[in-house]
Amino acid sequence: MTQKRIFKIHGYLLLLFIFTLIINLPIASFSKTVEKSIRPKSIFQENRILSKPDSNEIDLEFRDWISKFRIKALAAGVSPKFFDKLTPEIKYNETLIKLDRKQSEFTKQIWEYLDVAVSDTRIKNGKRAYQENKEVIQEIEKYYSVDAKIIVGIWGLESAYGVQKGNVKTIEALATLAFDGRRRKFFEEQLIAALKILERGDISFSEMKGSWAGAMGHTQFIPTSYLVYAQDFNSDGRAEIWSNDPTDALASTAYYLNRHGWISGQPWGLEVRLPENFNYHLIGKKKKKNTIDWSLLGVRMINGDSLPNYGGASIILPAGHTGVVLMIFDNFHVLEKYNASLAYVLGVGHLGDRIMDGQSFYHKWPRNEEALSTNEKKELQEFLLKSGFNIGKVDGMIGPKTIEAIRSLQSKLGKIPDGFATKDFLKGLK
Domain for residue 11, yes or no? Predict the structure, then answer.
């Protein structure tokens, strides 16, 4: 066979191979201008789109973010030498991102939260912790004019009286969450504050540990709060909120509450009884009346006694008209400054009351009611928006505007306007 003929046969084979390759390619592979192909993506393409970056890629992006964050940190007062020395120690922790996502998706009813927050065990441990630290807690109470039961209630809810302060490196936690970007501004502010705490020598990098979200010590102070409110109550030269001794942490919390307007001797809230003909449109945190005026409307203590004159107060229904009815005072809103969650404020207040031998709630919770999922809450909000109610954005959070809209809709439907979002209410709207 001549060399010319061999070359010709090889040419045909090459053309056949190229043609076979082309007809087996996905349409999008050779037609980049066609963005919406009628041909579905291959399994390989779908997996590539849905898959997450590998760990090496994330680490590179994390390092790049740190180099950019350096500019902000230095502008805020962190020294270049300190930042650069610490940088190799800062690691990305993917586990914290999973915890953050899980928290935002999880939904509980108020009584489910309180079952844990004010459990018999936590009450018993709180009584013991108070007795063991009674002298210093009473000194703190007197010095800052903040009730001991609230200080102990926060201590119990935040760290189970120092048992669960957290073991995550604070810098690592804050850097990871800031890099993630869901609440970047907040976590960058906390990271800068934490770096300042380290640079001035209050604690070492290895000892600065706390929760996965960057809160620290017995009462879970965030770094910015530490810089402003941390107290050296035992006069040892440092505001030591991380040690086994809770003194400085409890004093720091008392000082925080004092600075935010705590009124000594005023309750955070009281369980009350409403009259049969009560106007439920008077319910809500922003609808405030003097306790004398509430008394004239027939509101009474749970045992039927007249209301003590503690000044201005509002009435809230955390679980609708069939559950616990609470009259809340200015100190309730001070606790919201520490943590804005309604469940948290109720947990702290009720735990503190129970530790000091207060009674459990008289009324029962409507335990037959299931919590709305985040998607169901969004569905309810979308319905309210379409019905003309100004509730703001659809975010799956049942806030004051959503509650007011529910109350208005309940009135139109001839129901008691308690503003409580339930599955049955949502079903009735469909």
Answer: no
